[in-house]
UniProtKB/TrEMBL annotation:
Fluoride channel required for the rapid expulsion of cytoplasmic fluoride. It is a multi-pass membrane protein. It is found in: Cell membrane. Belongs to the fluoride channel Fluc/FEX (TC 1.A.43) family. It catalyses: fluoride(in) = fluoride(out). Keywords: Cell membrane, Membrane, Transmembrane, Transmembrane helix. This is CrcB-like protein-domain-containing protein.
């Protein structure tokens, strides 16, 4: 049964999901990306504004580590004869950690609120990717890998990636919430960090992201398309999604508009970058690396499955279903218009033609 309004305002999403309850107002989900606030009954001294420098700074390294985790998991699980598509591991891992973060929102608030946003919005949002999921499904429809299979099997491959991702993400999210709820009483609450420690964390976080620029230029060039270009664009993608979330999510009662816009824009951009990497005309290796970095870094961090799963897992009945269907159809239509028209017009190859520097 839905919670009454007063209870919704006092309850974080993790607690709502832990009690197997739902809400019927999408703008009540706007708190998912925000640091802990009065709604969690915290004292004013422990409340941080959404655009506080401490909150924004910790999103920087969190985005970097989220991208590294995603790229690492994809590299580890991509091989010939794989039984499960690589993004399944990525989405499941990110949603599990997201569940832990949601369940720990109040303890995070009592300890150091910006860490909650860093873990959920920063790390989990950058680890999981809605745009990558949509591109993976679309590539199955068109059989971009040119596998020897019929059209019906192309459909089944895309359909499988659709429902497995949704079910696995929701199950992992709730598993994280459950395990955290069971384990939490056995761990004592740590003392909040001192003012000096908090400011030191903020400075180190900013310096960590600043290091991505020299890393791009001074590390070996073959690292650019593999990681360093993506790290350079990671925080801008997360910041865009965060700003869309805190400004647009409270606007509609039917669906979280900010998350929807972030996922839609990121999917469209990823499709556009993918098209640019398929032009038959020569594209320089540096441009190819930047396009790959924009796809893996900016689009990967701009779009999220972890927040999306938390929203559809909390919304009531038909609103959850309609939000899921609208988001998925929008993503596929955007890729159909951007990528499909380019491929079938004969101007762009379905396979990437970009060449990267290997030394």
């Amino acid at each position: 049964m839905p919670l009454d309004l007063a209870s919704q305002q006092r309850s974080d999403v993790g607690s709502i999901l832990a009690r197997h309850q739902t809400i019927d107002d999408a703008n009540s989900l706007a708190s998912i990306d925000r640091p802990p606030s009065e709604a969690e009954e915290l004292p004013p001294v422990k409340i941080y504004r959404p655009l506080s420098i401490h909150v924004l700074a910790l999103l920087m390294p969190a985005s970097i580590f989220g991208v590294l985790a995603r790229l690492g998991l994809q590299a580890l699980t991509t091989y010939k004869g794989e039984s499960i598509f690589p993004l399944a591991y990525v989405q499941a891992t990110g949603c599990f950690i997201m569940g832990v973060g949601l369940r720990m929102k109040v303890p995070f608030g009592n300890f150091y609120g910006p860490l909650y946003t860093a873990l959920t919005t920063g790390f989990c949002g950058s680890l999981t990717t809605f745009s990558g999921w949509q591109l993976d499904v679309f590539n199955s429809w068109i059989n971009s890998g040119q596998f020897s299979r019929g059209g019906l099997r192309d459909f089944m491959d895309g359909f499988t990636k659709t429902w497995v991702t949704l079910v696995l993400s929701l199950a992992s999210l709730k598993l994280g919430i459950y395990i955290c709820g069971v384990a939490q009483p056995y761990f004592p609450a740590p003392r909040p960090p001192s003012k000096n420690v908090r400011y030191t964390l903020t400075v180190l976080a900013i310096l960590t992201y600043a290091a991505t620029l020299p890393a791009y230029f001074f590390l070996p060039r073959n690292f650019r398309h593999q990681a360093t270009a993506a790290l350079l664009f990671s925080f801008p993608g997360t910041l865009t999604r965060y700003l869309l979330s805190i400004n647009l999510n409270p606007r509609l009662k039917t669906l979280p508009l900010g998350t929807f816009m972030a996922n839609s824009i990121g999917t469209a951009l990823l499709g556009f970058f993918h098209v640019l990497q398929g032009f038959s005309s020569a594209v320089s290796p540096n441009t190819c690396s930047l396009l790959q970095g924009l796809g893996d870094g900016y689009c990967g961090c701009l779009t999220t499955i972890s927040t999306f799963a938390a929203e559809i897992g909390t919304l009531e009945g038909w609103k959850a279903v309609s939000y899921t269907i609208i988001s998925w159809i929008t993503g596929q239509l955007l890729l159909l218009v951007i990528m499909g028209s380019s491929f079938w017009g004969g101007h762009v190859k379905e396979q990437m033609t970009c060449s990267f520097q290997t030394s």
